[in-house]
Design goal:
binds magnesium ion, 10-stranded mixed β-sheet, about 400 residues, alpha/beta, TIM Barrel, single chain, binds D-gluconic acid
């Protein structure tokens, strides 16, 4: 197939969702064309994987067969407007998978890495942040040191909170963090007072130990009210965080006005957003500094570019979500996006396990605190279907959190 192909139709011949569980569940959409070129997209929604798999097989794939794979925008609009009930995260994750697979195909047909097709390289490497966590401050401080030794220039730090069982972000073991740990939600405890008392001590210790230069990040994970978040932001100002993430639930975007009035600690939000409408106020009122939306949950490359362009008008930078429940396919596509996007901030990089990496061979690599997308045509990630078939789906859901009096809280 010569690049460009003179506008000849490239027909979608077949498409299928592939569910696999190499230690955790992933859903991958594979779209095949009559030219023998195929593309893949991540369709994983942690704890709701089968909902997206059935949305794809029941409602999306029948609409793809026979269409021209090159008509990415038209297919995006067809699936978005044609879905009618458009903006839910299941529909947008399914749409994202289609979009990612079609961009993969188009770049392969053009014979170039996806970032070239988007507009070429804007940076030599993609700054990433790793995840240091520990049962207490001491362990977490040691883990930050281990990530410094691995060459990370930016590190998220999460530690256990005295008296709080199952504090967010503290993994089992020191490398991989996977919160979806049971078929039904694990109940965890939350205690805001204990947390607000504890968090500043962690970052004071980190600055004492590692000095002012290493970039430190923290994820509050939706746990605080706006004024509590303002208080935490103020208490962390002496320790110069790169960002304080998900400080309060962003269902009410205007809540961030309250935080903004009280603290200069940079704010990041958006990993659970499914469309530009979920963050329009946050962006247009400059209530945040980084938008966390990513390829797999926010409508794919096509929609994420629109979010990034809006954010760029307000000097807000990207900070794509990149936890282990986003597959290497999403990571690969995100890295090409990150390599191009002008208002790039940082990319989350939670390493996948060796089993996962085996199922999803890829050409991106880590070096000296940066991830580098490969030069293979497309987004550079594939799926080994035979190997994937060996890992049966396992029912898993994300935890819930309760306060000490039993009140159901934000996890
Ligand atoms: C992050 C996220 C994750 C989520 C997970 C949910 O900042 O990486 O908050 O830790 O909890 O992606 O599936
Ligand atoms: Mg987060």
């Amino acid at each position: 197939m010569e690049p460009g192909n003179g506008g000849k139709k490239v027909t979608i011949r077949s498409a299928r969702g592939i569910v696999t569980c190499p230690g955790r569940n992933f859903v991958t959409l594979k779209i095949e064309t009559d030219e023998g070129v195929y593309g893949i997209g991540d369709a994983t929604l942690n704890g709701r994987e089968l909902s997206v798999a059935s949305y794809l097989s029941d409602h999306v794939i029948p609409n793809l067969i026979g269409r021209d794979a090159q008509r990415i925008e038209d297919i995006w609009q067809f699936l978005y407007k044609g879905g009618y009930w458009s903006r839910g995260v299941v529909a947008m994750t399914a749409l994202a998978a289609v979009d990612t697979a079609l961009w993969d195909i188009k770049a392969k047909l053009a014979g170039m890495p996806l970032y070239q097709l988007l507009g070429g390289r804007s940076r030599d490497g993609v700054l990433v942040y790793g995840h240091a966590n520990g049962a207490d401050i001491e362990q977490t401080v040691d883990q930050v040191g281990a990530y410094c030794d691995m060459g990370y220039r930016a590190i998220r730090a999460q530690s256990g909170v005295p008296g709080v069982k199952g504090a967010y972000g503290v993994g089992r073991g020191d490398m991989y963090y996977e919160p979806a740990d049971a078929a039904l939600p694990t109940e965890t405890l939350w205690d805001t007072a204990a947390y607000l008392n504890h968090a500043p001590k962690l970052f004071e210790k980190l600055r004492d130990q590692y000095g002012p230069d290493i970039e430190l990040l923290h994820d509050v994970h939706h746990r605080l009210t706006p004024m509590e978040a303002a208080r935490l932001g103020k208490s962390l100002e002496p320790f110069r965080l790169f960002w304080m993430e998900d400080a309060t639930p962003a269902d009410n975007q205007e809540a961030f006005r309250l935080i903004r009035q009280h603290t200069t600690t940079p704010l990041a939000v958006g990993e659970i957003f499914a469309s530009i409408h979920d963050c329009r106020t946050l962006i247009q009122e400059q209530l945040i500094d980084y938008i966390r939306s990513t390829v797999v949950h926010a409508g794919g490359i096509t929609h994420l570019r629109r979010i990034a362009d809006l954010a760029g008008l307000y000097q807000i930078r990207t900070g794509c979500h990149g936890a282990t429940d986003l597959s290497p396919v999403c990571m690969g596509a995100a890295l090409h996006f990150d390599t191009w996007v002008p208002n790039f901030g940082i990319q989350e990089y939670m390493r996948h396990t060796p089993e996962t990496d085996e199922v999803f061979p890829h050409d991106y690599h880590f070096a000296d605190g940066y991830l580098h997308a490969g030069e293979a045509p497309g987004h550079g990630v594939d799926i080994d279907e035979k190997l994937a078939a060996k890992y049966e789906y396992e029912p898993r859901q994300l935890p819930v959190a309760r306060l000490r009096d039993g009140t159901l809280w934000n996890w």
